[in-house]
Structures are given as structure tokens and as C-alpha cells.
Amino acid sequence: MIELTDLSDRSFVLNSELIESITSIPETKISLTNGNYYLVKETPSEIIEKVVKYKKSLKYKGS
């Protein structure tokens, strides 16, 4: 799960396993595998960093 900010400055948590694609249009559009999408303030690079950090944290919890 990663924390993101929508265009109204509200924080929400997204299940990163559902991300299908990330597009910059100029805001960032996150398309999900279920057909939904979110427009967020974070850049694609920031989202990727959050996903990698989250996945690394899972690896250490499983050790």
C-alpha cells in the first residue's frame, strides 16, 4: 500500500499491486487493472520510489 495525494490535496492509500500504468498528462494518471484510475500530485518517479520502498518493506517482514 502506498500513500498518495489527489488533486484536492487529500491523502489516500492505494494498493500498489493494482497499478497497470502511470502516465504524466501533466498531472499523473494511475490506471488500475480493474479499469479505474486516479489523478495524483506525485510524479511517476515518486510513485515508483514509493512502490519499491513498500515492496522492500514486505521482503524484510517476511524474513
Give the topology, please:
Layout (H helix, E strand, L loop, with lengths): L1 E4 L5 E4 L4 E6 L3 E5 L4 E4 L3 H18 L2
Antiparallel strand pairs: 1-2, 3-4, 4-5
Provide a brief overview of the structure.
This protein is 29% helix and 37% strand. With 63 residues, it is of the alpha+beta class. A hairpin with a 4-residue loop joins strand 4 and strand 5 (37-40).
Write the H/E string, N to C: EEEEEH
Spans of at least 5 consecutive residues with low confidence: none
Global structural class: alpha+beta
- CATH fold assignment: OB fold (Dihydrolipoamide Acetyltransferase, E2P)
Mean pLDDT: 95
Which bin fits the share of residues in helices? 25-40%
Count of discrete domains: 1
Question: Mind telling me which CATH architecture this is?
Answer: Beta Barrel
* Proportion in β-strands: 35-45%
Backbone shape: globular
Q: Whole-number radius of gyration?
A: 12 Å
Number of strands: 5
Report strand order across the widest sheet. 3-4-5
Q: Report the end-to-end length measured between terminal Cα atoms.
A: 19 Å
Largest sheet geometry: 3 strands, antiparallel
CATH C-level:
Mainly Beta
Total helical segments:
1
Describe this structure in words.
- By secondary structure, the chain is α+β, with helices and mostly antiparallel strands.
- The protein has one domain: OB fold (Dihydrolipoamide Acetyltransferase, E2P), CATH 2.40.50.
- The chain is 29% helix and 37% strand.
- It has one helix at 44-61; strands at 2-5, 11-14, 19-24, 28-32, 37-40.
- It has a three-stranded antiparallel beta sheet with strand order 3-4-5, with no helix packed on it. It has a two-stranded antiparallel sheet with strand order 1-2.
- The chain is globular and about 35 Å long.
- The mean pLDDT is 95.
